[in-house]
Amino acid sequence: MVRIDRRRLLKLSGAGAAAAASGGLAGILASGRAPAYAQQANVHWLRWSDFVPASDQLLLNQIVPECQKALGITLRIEMVNANDIQARVTSAVQSGTGPDIILALNNWPQLYIDSLADVSDVADKLGADQGGYYPISKAVATAGGKWIGVPWCIGGGLVAYRKSWFQEIGYDKFPDTWDKLQAAGKILKAKDRPIGQALSHSFGDPPGFWYPWLWSWGGKEVEADGKTVALDSKETVESVERALPFWKEACDSGGLAWDDSSNNRAFLSGSISATNNGASIYLEAKRKPDVYQTEKGAPMYQDILHAPLPKGPGGQYNLPGPFTNMLMSYSKNQAAAKQFVTWVNSKPIFEQWFTSQQGYTIGATKDWANDPIWQKDPVLLPFRNLPDEGRLMGYAGPPGRASAEAQTKYIIVDMYAKAVQGTAPEDAVKWAQGELTKIYS
Which residues are CB-neighbours of 246 under 8 A, at least 6 positions away? Predict the structure, then answer.
């Protein structure tokens, strides 16, 4: 990842900030007519390549022409691998030019506070119209009493697992504790059906597993003040010690080199029995029942269920993934960009995209928990509850720049990776404590 020069960001953002238009959005949308200033406007939206291909196709083939017709805005959507987004943000901020809107994941907006436009007028109205935001979306998209981004949706992971394979070894339900999962995984790995878990530098799956693992043993990054680093504790050391036999006995060792697509491919090929992931594995198997089949020739999706990560002595947690659209302060199209973000998040337009997700994400506002999509497939219903059942990076403090930097440098993930590759648990924890101290101080 490209390192972020904060002084440079401050200088550029201060010099390049543009005034954002705040009035008339509701009237424009209500009239259905494009305002005169937007007739020739262009908006460049950089976002990730979705794990639900139908959603990307809908944006390109339906939302783009609808935007032109409804707003008179020529919308350019650029889709890249999510792991490439942060480098693009840094490059754009340092050069003072680039996409007008960038879709950020997790707590990334906190890294770029001084380079983002105030979008409080847009975010406040959308929240009021749609039942209010989930606290995790608001936490990562606000700073200093203002909105630094407009929440888009919330993703997250549950354990996708092969129901029949666990039943064969005596588990009618997915194991609810780490000890039980380790025991089950040991048997499955002996059958060449290990648990698949990424322990690498990738934006979603590694943090999505190892942060909850840390919390479940009672470990934490910092105290509630958000400043005092508290990682080096007996609870954290125990979490690292317990990760070693779990990894060796139950997991596919190839996870040290996996990105966020690797476990999808491994699961769909029948190489692993379970993995913490979004709903994309199930959705892909369901989309292609003739391609992805069990060893008995049945559609694989019929043998997939989802369960929460197991609990440890410190509790049971997940790491939800908020998505936030950031309007960059260097943009010369801020009025049009605000108009677009208001429109694309409005219920009639967002509903199209949300339906195409089929349960892979939930909306950032609470009204979407009541959408009919959740009643269509009970296998996907557990994903609806993820925003209310997790913690954010930086626990026990609030999310902020330091926790975002720690995540993008993979400090917590690397603590476990070092240990499974031979570093003594105590030394791995001390190394991570030192790295966090550099960041938080």
Answer: 178, 181, 182, 185
